[in-house]
Amino acid sequence: MLNVAVKAARAAGAIINRAALDVEAVRISQKQVNDFVTEVDQNSERVIIETLLTAYPDHGILAEESGSTHGNPNADHIWIIDPLDGTTNFIHGFPYYCVSIALQVQGRLEQAVIYDPTRNDLFTATKGRGAFMNDRRIRVSKRTRLEECLLATGFPFRPGDDFNKYLSLMGDVMQRTAGLRRPGAAALDLAYVAAGFSDGFFELGLKPWDMAAGALLITEAGGLVSNFTGEGPYLEHEECLAASPRIYAQLVPITQKYSKFAGVDDKRAASTAAKTLSVSRAAPDAPL
């Protein structure tokens, strides 16, 4: 099954790379403000689904663009697909995007493939057998102190997102770390945590296809994944925290109060911090 997923990811990557040669010719539509879909997303998703269902016609599909309209929705085996994670990067020619494919069997993640077509980097994992990048075993970072760590995140961009809450969260994290990055493709961000290129990742508003493959990569590479409170299941919670075990333990006390699953006191503290930030942003500049 992993080999079939790799075949599907590489076929999608070929479509993406051909389109990247002339991005300005790509047809783009907008699902909502700042949320784009291109014909490349759709063509990539189509070839992935065709490849998977040709091999496993009884399996189910959960894909970003077409949802559960293909395959058997009642199957024990469900392929979770993001055909082009980082579409906004792609349409701007910013070379950080990927194909993400995961297989969930009776609710458990069993196989994962993340393919970066710009670098020809292939990340794979099978439950219980470890995680690999280009056939080389990978492990999460060995750093133990949060202040030495480089973390990745995603910024809010949808209408209705709580910007002040997120700015407060980022402020809490940034002052405790060596750096914070926003590359723009959550699946690839998670793969980089698994490979030890970054030490952790957190983001709100994610969907299962953003997280599934990367989550299995991280757990097979020795890391931990959950929602912001440190609890699961996280795929349906729209929030993701991932890191090596020691860094994860230092991040949970920071992120948990920003979780929609947090306790009353934690939520009150996060709300107060966000309101304080909102007032300070709205206040006129002090005279020189």
UniProtKB/TrEMBL annotation:
<protein>
    <recommendedName>
        <fullName>Inositol-1-monophosphatase</fullName>
        <ecNumber>3.1.3.25</ecNumber>
    </recommendedName>
</protein>
<feature type="binding site">
    <location>
        <position position="210"/>
    </location>
    <ligand>
        <name>Mg(2+)</name>
    </ligand>
</feature>
<dbReference type="InterPro" id="IPR033942">
    <property type="entry name" value="IMPase"/>
</dbReference>
<feature type="binding site">
    <location>
        <position position="84"/>
    </location>
    <ligand>
        <name>Mg(2+)</name>
    </ligand>
</feature>
<dbReference type="Pfam" id="PF00459">
    <property type="entry name" value="Inositol_P"/>
</dbReference>
<dbReference type="InterPro" id="IPR000760">
    <property type="entry name" value="Inositol_monophosphatase-like"/>
</dbReference>
<feature type="binding site">
    <location>
        <position position="82"/>
    </location>
    <ligand>
        <name>Mg(2+)</name>
    </ligand>
</feature>
<dbReference type="InterPro" id="IPR020550">
    <property type="entry name" value="Inositol_monophosphatase_CS"/>
</dbReference>
<dbReference type="GO" id="GO:0046872">
    <property type="term" value="F:metal ion binding"/>
</dbReference>
<comment type="similarity">
    <text>Belongs to the inositol monophosphatase superfamily.</text>
</comment>
<dbReference type="InterPro" id="IPR022337">
    <property type="entry name" value="Inositol_monophosphatase_SuhB"/>
</dbReference>
<keyword id="KW-0479">Metal-binding</keyword>
<keyword id="KW-0378">Hydrolase</keyword>
<keyword id="KW-0460">Magnesium</keyword>
<feature type="binding site">
    <location>
        <position position="85"/>
    </location>
    <ligand>
        <name>Mg(2+)</name>
    </ligand>
</feature>
<dbReference type="GO" id="GO:0008934">
    <property type="term" value="F:inositol monophosphate 1-phosphatase activity"/>
</dbReference>
<dbReference type="InterPro" id="IPR020583">
    <property type="entry name" value="Inositol_monoP_metal-BS"/>
</dbReference>
<dbReference type="GO" id="GO:0046854">
    <property type="term" value="P:phosphatidylinositol phosphate biosynthetic process"/>
</dbReference>
<dbReference type="GO" id="GO:0006020">
    <property type="term" value="P:inositol metabolic process"/>
</dbReference>
<dbReference type="GO" id="GO:0007165">
    <property type="term" value="P:signal transduction"/>
</dbReference>
<feature type="binding site">
    <location>
        <position position="64"/>
    </location>
    <ligand>
        <name>Mg(2+)</name>
    </ligand>
</feature>
